[in-house]
Each structure stands twice: as structure tokens, then as C-alpha cells.
Amino acid sequence: MKLFLRYQISGTTFLFWMAIFYCGSDAKNLTNLVCNLSLLNDYIISAVALAMPIGILIHQFSVLIKNWVVAKFFNEFSDFPNSELIALLSTKPTEQVKYYFDKVSNLNSFYYVRVDNGFLAPLMAWLIIYFAMQREIHLTWSITAIAISIIALIYIQTIRSELKKYREILNHVHQRKTD
């Protein structure tokens, strides 16, 4: 269920940014933008249906970026299973070990939510509106998207630090079990 919601939210966020960039090109201020967006009421049901597959696509881009780029520089973000830690969980799954694995899983989810919704959704929407639809995008909405992206991505360093700490704890627990 968690993945379903993640995909739906990512797709909806993308469609939201598409509407902002498309309708915002003619808007001189926020009031004009809201008026322009209100004209899209007929498309809301279609947007809900499209959100899921778009969200899946955005998430797959996010996974590729995380595993092919980010994990190359920051090992903590690797989704590749650590066989020693998996063995630890499968042989003696204590409550403490399960807790730390859940924390790692949740931190990965936090990472994906921030990258999918805060960075990739607005970026992909901007690229499609500007290049594919060849529509000018008002600078105000571009700056707004950039500011939101920066705010969303700032916390990734904290996520990285926490992931690193929990992996160290799990490695320490694994070392105690093998000694």
C-alpha cells in the first residue's frame, strides 16, 4: 500500500507542476494562476487515472539515479542487499535488528519521497512543458519550483547521516554475532 500511495502522490505532484507551468505561462500573479487552474476541472478525473503510471515512471527514474549515481558517491544509499546483514536478519531476527532494518527502510522511503516529489516531478514537468509543448514558463513559477526542490533536497544529507549510523549499528551487531 505504501508504494501505491508513493506512486499516486508522485504522479499527482507531476501533474500539478504540469498545470502550474502550463497555466502559469499566461498568469501575471497567483490570482491569475488560480483562475487559470480552475479551468482544468474537467480534466481532474483523467489526471487521477494518469497519476499512477506517471508516478511509477518517476519513481523508476529516481531508483536509477539513486543506484547508478548517488550510491557511487555515497555508499549508504545503495539498495544492493548486503549479504552479511541479510544473514543477520534471517538467522537471529531480534526486535532490535528488525527495528534498525525498519529505520533504514523508512529513511530510504523519505529519500525517495523527497527526490520524486521535490525534484524529479517538477523537473520533468518543466522539461515537458518547455521543450515538448514549446510553451514559455513564467520565471516566477520556475523559481518557485527551484526553491521547493532545494528545500526538499536539503534534508537528504540528514537522511544520509542517519542511514550511515544505522548501517554501522547493524554491522556492529553482525560482528558481535559472528565473534
Describe the structure in your own words.
With 179 residues, the protein is mainly alpha-helical. The protein has one domain. It is built from seven helices and no strands. The chain is elongated and about 70 Å long. The protein starts with a helix and ends with a helix.
Write down the overall geometry: elongated
Which whole number gives the mean pLDDT? 90
Give unreliable regions as ranges: none
Order of helices and strands: HHHHHHH
What oligomeric state is this? single chain
Termini distance? 39 Å
Q: Main β-sheet, in a few words?
A: none
Number of strands: 0
Indicate the percent of residues in helices.
over 70%
Strand % is under 5%
**Helical segment count:** 7
Radius of gyration using CA atoms only:
20 Å
Give me the secondary-structure category.
mainly alpha
Structural domains: how many: 1
Question: How do you describe this structure in short?
Answer:
The protein has helices spanning 2-24, 30-38, 44-73, 83-91, 95-132, 139-154, 156-178. The protein contains seven helices and no strands.
Which properties best describe this structure?
single chain, 179 residues, mainly alpha, 7 helices, 83% helix
Describe the SSE topology.
Layout: H1 2-24, H2 30-38, H3 44-73, H4 83-91, H5 95-132, H6 139-154, H7 156-178
Helix pairs in contact: 1-2, 1-3, 1-5, 3-5, 5-6, 5-7
